[in-house]
Amino acid sequence: MSIEQILRERAGEQCELCGSSDNLTTYAIDGDKDSAEKCVLTCGVCHSQIENPESIEPNHWRCLNDSMWSQVSAVQVIVWRMLNRLRGEGWPQDLLDVLYLDEKIQAWAEACSESDYDSGVKHLDSNGTTLNAGDTVTLTKDLNVKGANFTAKRGTAVRNISLVVDNEAHIEGRVSGQRIVILTKFVKKSG
Question: Which phi and psi (to 5°) does residue 86 adopt?
């Protein structure tokens, strides 16, 4: 039985990441095509976006909310890597916080280079400190919030920020109950 046949049987003829049955193909983790344990059955969309990070559509990957519970080690590795690649979106960080991997699987997932799941965009605060999704920042000046008719005051703490993946100058956070986009040059990382 070929590796693809083994994967199709294991996955029930569905993408092991999103559940689609369109254009199914084998994705070999780290290029290892010799073992079904190191491969995942993916649809064309998942396969393309894994291979081409610049084509990622973050909302497609909300399917990881379900596939993260797979008992298949290879699926767990891809889920961890994709959640890390997307962590600037905010919601993937929540999934990473509850995802538990066995030590060996965690080591395998982390074995890829940082560049394999990092978009390359670095968010820096007004002092040049790197910002990460989930951080708390403090506003360094009063900001008029367009469309919300209020001013976010200097010194306001913004907790659990999200990073705008394709724009290093923008983060998102909740101020006065409103989710707003904030320029990184007007914040400093807290604690």
Answer: -100, 5
